[in-house]
Amino acid sequence: MDITAATLHTVSDTLRRWALDEDLKARTMADPALAAVAGRVAARYTAGPDVDGALRALESVAHRGHRGSIECVGESVRDAGVASQETEAFVDLAERLGRPGSPRPAPVPTLSFDLSHLGSLVSPELGLENASRVAQAARDAGTSVMISAEGSDRTDLVLDLWERLSSDFPETGITLQARLHRTPEDLERVLRRPGPVRLVKGAFLEPSAVAYLRDSEPMIAAYHRLADRLLRSGHRVSLATHDAALVEELRARHGDTLRDDHVEFEMLQGLGTALLDALQAEGFATREYVVYGPEWWLYVLNRIAEHPERVLLALADLGSSASG
């Protein structure tokens, strides 16, 4: 049977719907057998369930010459108590990274998170309060935070809270998605503040009225226009992509500008490793993003959905785990 592009697109959309299906997530993770199977698939894309594994991964990242970013992955918290517990986990992580005499990569990795992980869906004020606590802990540790992108229905909330947070913590970064039709206007808004901008393609399931089809020519063109604007501005930018063809196009368009102090390439743990290492060896600034924690559902399914042929890797991981 031939697997067509249309079939792969359907698989990708199905995975993205599953990523957003909180009932499916709850049922899967509540079943010990299903949770164990799902966890074996997740192991390719995360540093494991606890912070110790993540810190070991960060040491490896630094040894390979990359800057680091770390996230205790999670999203869509709708209970204030849970949001407070998750906030404490990030504060503890920042304190651990900044503890004098403790083994850690240098420079200190940045902390990334979804605002909805810290309670923005409970109330914007709670999300801001908790994010401020993490930002202060990160500052005390000698680093900063990067706010992650969420679905387009949350973009206004994310940008509004980021602006409020960056009033007190101007070093705070923000993530923009090239897929969204609205992003050029959002970028002009973001450029009025000094925090770094992480430019990603965008992984969420979005209607065509809101976003370009992922990896379509219009989406790639949109990424280039946004990168052009950022690079011309001199603003700090993280070009976050695992797409080797896109990286080559960026290099052809911008040449040695990509070696300037305000520019870096960023890739996720377990994705684009060889490409990131090659860029670092050529003298480009590079960053690898390490994630850990039990709440990996949305993150991992979106990683597989980006390239639905990774479903085969997931099956191979299950097979190798079973045979081991």
TrEMBL record:
GO terms for biological process: L-proline catabolic process. It holds the Pfam family Pro_dh. The keyword Oxidoreductase applies. InterPro entries: FAD-linked_oxidoreductase-like (IPR029041), Proline_DH_dom (IPR002872), Proline_oxidase (IPR015659). SUPFAM superfamilies: FAD-linked oxidoreductase (SSF51730). Keywords: Oxidoreductase. GO terms for molecular function: proline dehydrogenase activity. Transmembrane segments: none annotated. It comes from the Bacteria. The keyword Oxidoreductase applies. Residues 55-294 form the Proline dehydrogenase domain. This is L-proline dehydrogenase. The lineage of its organism: Bacteria, Bacillati, Actinomycetota, Actinomycetes, Micrococcales.
